[in-house]
């Protein structure tokens, strides 16, 4: 590789950091790749950090010492976050999304790679300081969002299944009752979640919170602790959920099948009690 000038090297460094969110990259990784001295790379990283702080987006953390290096998380700025959430509210408040039974169609947004990545980055920003070790979700619609949260944080993702799979090995199974009084089963493989792990529970939707509660409980059964619970959309009612503390990005305030109206608004940044 030809020797790069500083501008070229900064672009290349940013590309590498974006491709490896959350990964601790030693300075030697950059010096070997760009054929530059550690002092030069340190100056480059300081410039990248300065630019990120000026933009209010992303987080670059440097680690001193022989085992040190740098970690980067691609998080949105406050302005980007608000712009994205408001646009999602506009899209989800379209009466054409109303489904029989008072449900709101949002699968197209959850499974769209650009939207799910933006939502995942916002969720990651809310929980990065909780320092989770793993993201836990339940099949199936929570998976795309949870995967994007896990990517933004540089963490593994674990999927709680509705039934056991021989390919998952030994597992812990939990039965729980949903808000509609139906009995459900949730199974997590013992190889997927380890004792002492800090779990971030992520799901696409919460009404009463029974599914989130079950994920919290199954994590506890496996000796893990819960770093946080995050959902994309929660309903305004019932106000009292089965999880005591959670973060919701959006609130479904009202759906009227007869009047054909639906209202989705950004949720408060407050943790629900």
Task: Describe what this molecule looks like in 3D.
The structure is a single chain. The protein is α/β, with parallel strands linked by helices. It has helices at residues 6-19, 27-34, 38-55, 78-92, 107-110, 113-127, 142-153, 210-221, and strands at 59-63, 69-73, 98-99, 103-104, 134-138, 157-160, 171-177, 183-189, 198-206, 225-235, 247-256, 261-266. The strands form four sheets. It has a six-stranded mixed sheet, sandwiched between helices. Strands 1-2 form a two-stranded antiparallel ribbon. The N and C termini lie far apart (55 Å).
Secondary structure: elements and pairs:
Blueprint: H1 6-19, H2 27-34, H3 38-55, E1 59-63, E2 69-73, H4 78-92, E3 98-99, E4 103-104, H5 107-110, H6 113-127, E5 134-138, H7 142-153, E6 157-160, E7 171-177, E8 183-189, E9 198-206, H8 210-221, E10 225-235, E11 247-256, E12 261-266
Parallel strand pairs: 5-6, 5-9, 9-10, 10-11
Antiparallel strand pairs: 1-2, 3-4, 7-8, 11-12
Helix pairs in contact: 1-3, 6-7
């Amino acid at each position: 590789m030809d020797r790069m000038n500083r501008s070229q090297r900064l672009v290349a460094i940013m590309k590498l950091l974006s491709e490896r969110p959350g990964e601790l990259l030693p300075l030697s990784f950059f010096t070997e790749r760009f054929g530059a001295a550690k002092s030069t790379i340190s100056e480059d990283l300081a410039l990248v950090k300065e630019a990120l702080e000026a933009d209010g987006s992303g987080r670059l953390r440097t680690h001193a010492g022989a085992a040190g290096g740098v970690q980067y998380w691609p998080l949105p700025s406050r302005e980007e976050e608000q712009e994205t959430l408001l646009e999602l509210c506009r899209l989800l408040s379209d009466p054409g999304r109303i489904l029989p039974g008072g449900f709101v169609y949002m699968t197209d947004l959850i499974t769209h790679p650009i939207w799910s990545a933006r939502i995942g980055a916002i969720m990651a920003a809310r929980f990065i300081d909780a320092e989770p070790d793993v993201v836990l979700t339940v099949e199936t619609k929570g998976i795309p969002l949870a995967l994007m949260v896990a990517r933004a944080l540089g963490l593994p993702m674990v999927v709680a299944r509705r039934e056991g799979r021989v390919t998952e090995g030994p597992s812990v199974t939990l039965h729980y009752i949903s808000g509609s009084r139906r009995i459900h089963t949730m199974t997590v493989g013992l190889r997927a979640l380890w004792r002492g792990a800090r779990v971030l529970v992520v799901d696409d939707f919460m009404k009463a919170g029974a599914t989130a509660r079950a994920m919290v409980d199954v994590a506890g059964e496996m000796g893990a602790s819960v770093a946080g619970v995050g959902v994309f959309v929660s309903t305004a009612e019932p106000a009292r959920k089965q999880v005591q503390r959670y973060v919701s990005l959006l609130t479904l305030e009202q759906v009227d099948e007869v009047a054909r109206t639906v209202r989705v608004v950004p949720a408060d940044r407050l943790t629900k009690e």
